[in-house]
Amino acid sequence: MPEAQQVHKTVRKRCFVQMTGYEPVGAAHQHRRFIREMARFQKAWNVKGEVSAPVVSADGAVASWSVVCSGPNWRVDTDFHWFRWDDFVIADAAESDWLRFPLGVAALMEFILTGTVVKYFIVAWRYGGFFLSPLLYVLGMMWLSIALTRFAVIHFGLPYHLVTAPLLWLGFFVLFRLTLGRFWHIRYALDDWYFARDLIHRARPELEKRLDVLAQEFVRIVRASEADEIVFDGHSLGAPLSLIVLDRALKLDPQLLSRRGQRLNLVSSGSSLMKVALHPAAGWIRETVGRIATAPGIFWVEYQALVDVINVYKVDPVVALGLPFAGRPIVKIIHIRSMVEEHTYRRFRLSFLRIHRQAVMGNERRYFYDYYMLVCGPIALFDRTAYPDESVTAFAADGALIAESLQAIPEPSA
User: Fold this and answer.
1) Backbone φ, ψ for residue 307 (5° rounding)
2) Omega before 410 cis (within 30°)?
3) pTM for the full model?
4) 3-state class of 248 per DSSP?
5) Closest Cα to residue 116, out of 281, 271, 289?
6) pLDDT in tens, 163-175
């Protein structure tokens, strides 16, 4: 096709800060995944892309790399910064099951006894079901271990008082290892809920220090950046953590955003904010949300999906937390099935973790929500949010931007 005219407005330089969820994935693995998923994006949109090697900060808190993405008549250079807290997840995963089960079950019971689970069902019943899944699995394994112990004692004439307790524990762990323990990610789920409990109670001093370090790093990045657009993306449990980091950054430098003279773009996807913020002891998190929702200079959008049971659906998180309506975040509903080929969706549709991760993975189809378009696409987040259909039709088959498709987009208000 002939070379298209210059589009109305494009992003040429972007600064992208990412906080991912509760995953035991280190910097090297995350970088390889980024490259692998970007290849899907390149094929879907017929664009070119290059990713540099990762550079990890001296304290290990941030891994950064550069991304260059281009079509026939556009190019975007992105400074990508991955804010790390995976070392906490990796340490949790290394714990013994003998410690994991009592701590994990105790955390689940706390969410029940405090009434937090009731709030889950009120706000989003699917999320309430997600909460119950590991608890029901553990209870099921306990019931089976009791049944097997009774069978052994009755039919083999074993001394009841001597063998009952050892057989119960042995039966439970054998059943866990031989049945669906790995398939249903029960270890991961128990670790995740116990971590959430610790976050709510601010029970991990090292995590508090890491969030402070990341806030300082965010201030440094924003001050130094010459990007046309700055995006701070939080996925899953990284969504509430990103709000905490941003809030602390604004306390360090209240003029951080006004000094740049442009908005900060905040993205939440597959958000686990409700998971922690609905707990009665999470008042400090709710206060953080209230400050971010009303802070000047922030454009905040949250993407929610029906089939992702780890997030809430059609819920304004600010209002759900009992805070005054602020018009932030803008809630956008996405359809994960529209992002990938049908055979791909059929393959992972029963894996709730894989569905959950799609919000930060590469699309196989052109769709208005595309993680890599947020990272390295030429259309600004504000425009993509206000004009989702145009953000797709603005690209020709060869990946070029079509000027006419963007001409109608007005300049964002101050």
Assistant:
1) -80, -10
2) no
3) 0.89
4) helix
5) 281
6) 666 766 676 677 6
